Amino acid sequence: MNIFEFNKIAGAVLAGALFIMVINEVAHIAVHPTFPETNAYAIDTGNVASSEVAANDKDVGPSLGALLASADAEKGAKIFKKCGACHTAEEGGSNKIGPNLHGILKRPKGSHEGFSYSSGLTEKGGNWGYDDLDIFLKKPSDYIKGTKMSFAGIKKAEDRADLIAYLRTLGTSDVPLPPAN
Asked: Which domains can be identified in the chain, with CATH numbers?
């Protein structure tokens, strides 16, 4: 290919780009678009504070107490297999990537001996209760900002209740269930 053919191709590409730019400017001159001051409808961006998420979740569907009253610990054991990649559940079991979860209910947050928790979890304070576990299992990063746990969460409330029922059988079955409202 000689230099003249290359110049013809380059000239054609540039002429095409110039033609498109001219058509665009003529269109803007011919039509003056106006935009409304406010949106016609609100767009949910999903930017809601975690406390609002927790409050909204409690209002929708059956209460956690009702779900736990009908929860199946055997189904929860099957769901726990997802957790088993990072956690153990045997009494006195070792830590993996995550801490051992035996006796998790009423245990202070970030307190399992021999495990290095994220600062977000240790600063959260308090003990693990049914509501805390439910919100945490839904989406850990919403409940505790800066958590090291990369688990996406469990969307279905029934699955979370089954898992919590299973965790309750691990040394904390004496912890009373919340009322089924």
From this structure: 51-168 (1.10.760.10)
